[in-house]
Structure formats: C-alpha cells, structure tokens
Amino acid sequence: xxxxxFILKEFLDNAFNLKSHLMEFFSMQxxxxxxxxxxxxxxxxxLHPGDALSDASDFYSDIVGDRHVADLAAWHISSKxxxxxxLKLQQRFSTNLVLDFGGGIGTHALANAMSKKVEQVFFVDIxxxxxxxxxxxxKELGVEKKLTFCKTIKxxxxxxxxxxxxxxxxxxxxNPAAQIEIFSEIMNSNSIALFNWxxxxxxxxxxxxxxxxxxxxxxxxxxxQSNFLEVFHPILITTRAYKKIR
Length: 246
Prior knowledge:
- The chain is 47% helix and 17% strand.
- The chain has helices at residues 4-14, 18-25, 30-38, 40-47, 56-63, 67-78, 80-93, 107-114, 128-141, 176-185, 214-227; strands at 96-101, 118-124, 147-150, 161-166, 187-195, 228-231, 240-244.
- Strand 2, helix 9 and strand 3 form a beta-alpha-beta unit.
- Helix 2 (18-25) crosses helix 9 (128-141), helix 4 runs antiparallel to helix 6 and helix 10 (176-185) packs parallel to helix 11 (214-227).
C-alpha cells in the first residue's frame, strides 16, 4: 500500500491514469477522447427526460449509458485540485470498512483502497457501466483485492461501516433525507461519514438531474441535524464530516 502523499501526487499527476483507462475500457483512440469529454456535461443534461422521469434511479441505472462516465471524468480531470482536497479529507478519516456510495468513476474508492488504514472498500453504484469501469481500473492499479462491487448497500452484507463516503450524490436522489437515515443506521458510534451536496439545477438548467425542491431540501437538513453532529476539519471545501448523534 502507498502513503498518503504518494496517493495525492499520483492523482494530481494523471487522476490515477484516468485517460488511459477511458481509452482502453471503451476501446477509444486518443484522438476521440477530447470529444468524449468536452461536451460531456451538456450531453448528459440533454439526455435527462425532465418532469417525465418518475424515479431518479431509472435515469442513472438505465438511461445514462457511458455519458455519466464521460461527465464525471471531465469533472475530475478539470477540477483535480478540488478533488485532491476531498482525497485529503478522506485520508484524514477513512479506516477499516469503507462504504463508497454512488462512487461514479471510482476516484475516492481507488484512493481508499490504496490506503494502509483501510481494510476493504465497498463500492456501491446502481450503474453497471460505472461498476464495470471501476473494477477494470482497480485491476489496472493493482488494488482489486481491496474492492468489493455492489449495486446496493444491502448487497454488501455489512451491518456497520467505519467510514461512509457519499460525494456528489445526495442532490441526485429523490429522497436524500431517507438516504442519510439509512447511513445513520449502518454507522457505529465511532464511524465517520463524509457528505456534500449541491441542491441546484443551475443558472441555465445545466443540472436538470439535481433536486432543488424546497420541501425536499428542508426535510434533508432537518434529518441531517437530528441524526448527525458535524466534526470539524480544516480543509476549505464543501464536503463535511459527520458522526451520528445516537
């Protein structure tokens, strides 16, 4: 396993070889990669059916295809400094059994799998393409033995996690309050959860897949405040650390 400084350097250098993984996994030439990434956000937004969508999980499990991978990859490549700070945060708190919920292209799961403090990472994502892509990346990076891939939390067959990582996910859920209640149930008194959220569809509806309903958001914050106590950390990012109140 690698030390924290080496993990961060490797991410900042090449996002854990993300570009080469994309080309190899999708059988893509380098000349096609820029096009795959450059319009990723708008392509994903255009794919969203708007109010016709009754269940957000349908969008991410059945509709997005490889466009979600493209959008996430473009974000992680263009915002490496910010992502690196979230990796610093999880290095601060991640131990033993880690749940990475909605893990996307696997940046945080892979970094945790490289950590000496982490025993096993359970990568949970409803999108099969995401799971297959991250499994491929784990093998390429030599950390596949420390990663377990699941569609749901129930599939992990773990009753309590020491660390929960849920980044850039809650705003995509129909009921984010219910999700953090589930997280509380699978945490013990020493567990730490890392959350962030962005309940905003954008100035020009560039994030049509985000929740921005005021009642849903208010319920989320009431649930957060009644179940979790924030744990201070000095890193200036939007992600917060929490422990359960009871």
